[in-house]
Amino acid sequence: MAAVILGCDATALRRWNYRAAVEQVARTGTFLDRWQTFLRPDVCPGTEAWLFLSGSTDAASGLIGHGFVASGPFQGADPDPGSTDWFFALTLDGLLPPGEQIRPGTLGGTLSGDLLAKVTGPALVPLPPSSGPGLRRLWDAHGPSTAGPGEVLGGTFPPDAVSTVHVNRYERDPDARRACLAFHGTSCASCGFSFEAAYGGAGSGVMGVHHLTPPALLDDSYQLDPIADLIPLCHNCHAVAHTTSPPLTITELRRISSAAGHLNGEVVQDLALRAQEDAQRILDGGQM
Ligand SMILES: [Zn+2]
Ligand SMILES: [Zn+2]
């Protein structure tokens, strides 16, 4: 079966509302779209399609989606009546969240450098048949997981059970969270705590993310940028960040936690002393 690589850039993905497309594939298994090309594309129904994101750097590039061509080429679908652009229907059955694309370094053994150099910006490049099996293996290993969309991350409470931290929906979005942690790492941006370092494998997947743009500032056209707008925060720092509205900034959080300490904070000292006395009474077998 013939296969092609479809090149696209980040602007194209944004215009496409890529995040919504990722969500739809995760929920329903497919996302149908029209693919636009300048020249008549050499595709037919059933041609396998690999979506390649070409960014300005290798880190911003990589294999990001998979699907099949669902129609022959046709013209006249452009709203601009003078346009001679070609189109074909494309059914995508797997999309990776932005930031999780399979990078050129990983693809290197399967796709030649010459081939990758051709897939810059909007491009349609035939995939050499010899590369097909290798690409399929990479996609099976690094592509989207088949876990159900309703999955609760290990070690976290269902969102409704957490009433003291008023996270917004961007902080509960698993795709956005993965993209944020893939870029920023999994240590708390405020205190540096790492669940993996403290709890080993059991702590992976526990770090939370905090939305830096106060929800009050968001309008209807807002599109989340999981790398610029989300930051990893441990659950302690996150709870403190949300004690004010708008939330404390990361700088404010760091200043507070470095200035605090069991000895200087008056409020902390009173509470800490009382808790210590209570604990002592319990240990001594006395009554509260
Ligand atoms: Zn923290
Ligand atoms: Zn938050």
Fold blueprint:
Layout: E1 3-8, H1 10-15, H2 18-28, E2 31-37, E3 48-53, E4 62-69, E5 74-75, E6 86-95, H3 104-107, H4 113-118, E7 123-126, H5 132-142, H6 169-172, H7 174-184, H8 195-199, E8 208-211, E9 230-233, H9 235-241, H10 250-259, H11 266-283
Parallel strand pairs: 1-3
Antiparallel strand pairs: 1-7, 2-6, 3-4, 4-6, 5-6, 8-9
This protein binds zinc ion (ZN) (2 copies).
The site of one zinc ion has 8 residues, from β8 and α9.
Summed up, what is this model?
With about 290 residues, the chain is of the alpha+beta class.
Explain what you see.
By secondary structure, the protein is α+β, with helices and mostly antiparallel strands. It has two domains: 140 residues, ph1033 like fold; 90 residues, no CATH class. It has eleven helices and nine strands. Strands 1, 2, 3, 4, 5, 6 and 7 form a seven-stranded mixed sheet that branches. Strand 3 and strand 4 form a beta hairpin. The longest helix is centred in the last third of the chain and has 18 residues. The chain starts with a strand and ends in a 5-residue tail after the last helix. The structure holds zinc ion (ZN) (2 copies).
Q: What is the H/E string?
A: EHHEEEEEHHEHHHHEEHHH
List unreliable stretches of 5+ residues.
Answer: 146-166, 262-268
Question: What integer value in Å does the Rg equal?
Answer: 25 Å
Percent strand: 15-25%
Q: How many domains, in number, for the residues?
A: 2
- The CATH topology of the largest domain comes to ph1033 like fold
Which second-level CATH architecture of the largest domain applies? Answer: Roll
| Main beta-sheet strand count, sense and barrel state | 7 strands, mixed
The dominant shape is elongated
Overall average residue pLDDT: 79
How many angstroms separate the termini?
76 Å
Oligomer kind: single chain
Number of helices: 11
Q: Pairing-aware structural class of the strands and helices?
A: alpha+beta
Helix content: 25-40%
- Which ligands, by name, code or SMILES, are bound? zinc ion
The CATH class of the largest domain = Alpha Beta
Q: Would you count the extended β strands for me?
A: 9
